[in-house]
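Handout, page 2. Input:
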Amino acid sequence: GLPKRWRIVCWILRPRPPRTSCSSLSWPGASLLPYGAGAGDLEFVRRTVDFTSPLFRPATGFPLGSSLRDSLYFTDNGQIIFPESDYQIFSYPNPLPTGFTGWDPVALVAPFWDDADFSTGQGTIFYQEYKTLYGERRLPVLQTESWIRKITNNGGFKARWTLKVTWVNAHAYPAQWTLGSNTYQAILSTDGSRSYALFLYQSGGMQWDVAQRSGNLVLMGFSSGDGYFENSPLMSQPVWEKYRPDRFLNSSSGLRGLQFYRLHREERPNYRLECLQWLKSQPQWPSWGWNQVSCPCSWQQGRWDLRFQPVSIGLLGLGSRQLCSFTSWRGGVCCSYGPWGEFREGWHVQRPWQFAPELEPQNWCCLWNDKPYLCALYQQRRPRVGCATYRPPRPAWMFGDPHITTLDGVNYTFNGLGDFLLVGAQDGNSSFLLQGRTAQTGSAQATNFIAFAAQYRSGSLGPVTVQWLLEPHDGIHVLLDNQTVTFEPGHGDGGGQETVNATGVLLSRNGSVVSASFDGWAAVSVIALSDILHASASLPPEYQNRTEGLLGEGGAHLPLRLYGCHARYHHALCVTGQINGTGLLGKRNDQLPSNFTPVFYSQLQNSSWAEDVISSCNGDSSCIYDTLALRNASIGLHTRAVSKTYKQVNATLNQYPPSINGGHVVEAYKGQTTLIQYTSNAEDATFTLRDNWTDFKLFENGTLLWTPKSLEPFTLEILARSAKIGLASALQPRTVVCHCNAESQCLYNQTSRVGNSSLEMAGCKCDGGTFGRYCERSKDACEEPCFPSVRCIPGKGCEACPPHLTGDGRHCAALGSSLLCRNQSCPVNYCYNQGRCYISQTLGCQPTCTCPPAFTDSLCFLAGNNFSPTVHLEPPLRVIQLLLSEEENASMAEVNASVAYILGTLDMRAFLRNSQVNRIDSPAPASGSPIQHWMVISEFQYRPWGPVIDFLNNQLLAAVVEVFFYQVPRRREESRNHVVFQPISREDVWDVTALNVSTLKAYFKCNGYKGYDLVYSPQSGFTCVSPCSRGYCDHGGQCQHLPSGPRCSCVSFSIYTAWGEHCEHLSMKLDVFFGIFFGSLGGLLLLGVGVFVVLRFWNCSRTSFSYLLHSAEASP
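Output:
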């Protein structure tokens, strides 16, 4: 049993405890976290009636309900408030009379919301902000994490931001009159995706006297401002228990004086956190060669730059194509292009084929959150890759019998026989060799290439060697480091391309063309036609003036180029290009003829049959030479075709799209037209918008007009296209719109992104007594509610306090001093039915009862008032199934968060959660549009009050269809959490579970006197109604609801007396009966006398008249 001292204390404190038993006091009380200057806290107090703290701005934001809040502050009145804007700062001293309902206009967390007063110099507030974004260890945070993990049974919670606020010895208003003070603590903590609140009340430290509270009673709990809320369990308890939260037992922790709340409606990814943690892991400036790479300026240009390979990256948008290049010693670059081949953006990649590690941080920082400053920090660590510094590779090629175009553009025909150095090059980072082997072309006095070998080295790569060997029927045998290469399907978007990705080299085969890109630096492409190998080599500009060999630059082999080389003539020059010893191709298996002499062009032109054979060459000298030398028109035509292709490739590599010159940032004020002029270096360039938008108009000459009318998210992308060369450029400027009430309030340097778009919204600096997100509201004294029952006059403020109270209309208190009634006490058992007795100063220190809502009299004895029922058993949830479609390639988490937000905006805030979110696999449509279909199971809560039941049973499905048709933009945009779904119809929404009214009735109960009826109406829901208010007593009987149930006091009226349980019977009163009886007899007697007198008189009158008549007749 309990120690005796506990039993005595319990009896003294609570003679008739209604709910808290003595045994509950034996549970330990929760200790406040250390606070004060010794704990490193800061003190913040103002000696005024109301005050608010500075704003706190968690770097990750703070999840509250379905929103990510940017800022918060605390007040002296026991609240932590999340304002809509930095200028909407109020203290709200009067609690809500109804508690939190989900329709609350202000988002706040309330550990003890009541009117406090620090103006007399008593009490103070301490606070401390803990930033543990990168895993820092702080003891108070560790304790908070421990509580959260224990209560939620989730061991994975790791706080990234925590706020501790401690109200110390806070006095009730007015402090000079009230007794007792409160000491309590609120702790808010978030890991970026989840957020929780802990309220800690000092054991024995909650001493406010409820008898002195004149206004609305204390409120504890929270409301998110978007329909998610929770009231403290104490809100349904008697008033004296509300003011002693230090005695409340938390069953989850086993501690008294601890309340715990989950503040987030649903768990969602926090991209601000992901971005900040990634930024922390990166050096402030990139250490690798980011400034040495750039992108081709068009898709067409990049496809012929063999250093770049086409890839498919699913993380990018529809219609986007990508090219990537990788170099071991400087990293890589990927470039994205639009439908017309226009360059859109480029980014760095440090490791080949690992796109997600680079693209995800970019999405976290630049696309999926609404803070442009994070994107600026990302771009500082990953500077944007453009195409302004792009220099195409310098190509050289060998084709036909064989004809050579050198790196510096010199053309000549070479008929050497043997193994030759085609090009050798090196710089400080790498070296490259390309060798070729020729053979006599049949019996003709000419040669052609039958093999090539290339070798690449760099500081981080050993030698990589690739060989191309001619095989019969125009086949090519490829060896990589002397191992046969087997090709496999490529990485995508290569048009049937097959690839082999090895260390230091990417080999690709596209039809009969086999290419090798060495470390994204040098490239060789080989094709076999007519049993001849043709090749091109592309070297980077960094090798310029550092080359040697037959393809080299600078005129070192001019005689070779002009006259050719063979075994007998110009022997010294042949030695210069010929390889002595064993080269990259190894030893030859065939014996070279010792008497080979090539034929020269001038000799062939003198042939008598030349004119007929070369007519199809159309004057092409290489075609003519090969046709005549080999006496084969087909080979000559192949030579001409390859030559033409190489020239076209070279032309494309050196052809640039039209430029777009103009502002990269466009600023505009709502409703006003802004003009921006864009120009191009191409005279025939025409300007268009990628996507038309009603607020924009772009003329073909580059004149852009912007008249902002809405804040719908969009991305402005300007295209300039040259019809002459068929190339296009794109520019995506930042668009910043200001929707402030006045243009002078715009802060264009403080912006937030609108959705996943290029539109940014400027901040507002409110002045002139304005507030709100756009400074659209004028501050008024009625913005904060007045004291209960006090009316507020717009423009003037609160009227006078009620009689017997004093104050300014917002703060009211009883007249006089609290010492006035100090010696008065309540009589024993003065109040009935758990009513609370206190001594009222306003009633001359008389005992007064605070009664539960059902009671109508001053002693809590007579019931009769209607009240809301309690939830006896938690009813089953209202469940519906949705079929949704979207085109944003959204993830399951993004769909869940977006649907939860949309359903949370329904007029009736009854949405609870999505229990299932599943993607439905379906065949891709013919158009190729990436439409995703989702099946979502959504759950709603039945509640007994208001029109919730009627809405859920009769209006929910139609409301869901409507809300998805008119999807409301978020107040704040968290990236990728506002997926735009396609409109749905009634066929896309199904009932899964619904309860009718008769079934729901069993889950609610009227806790009070016997005899209360549970009555339902569509507008009011279930209400506990006393029969006394529904005509329980007939014939004017007076109904009183007593503990045993309703009772009628029958009353007499007129001549009747009502009787019976409901006064349903009527009886005539006895005295009235006899009175009527004797009255009737008397009336009859009087009537008889009257009749007798009348008849008598009538008879007498008739006799007298007859006598006179006879007398007259007798006297003539």
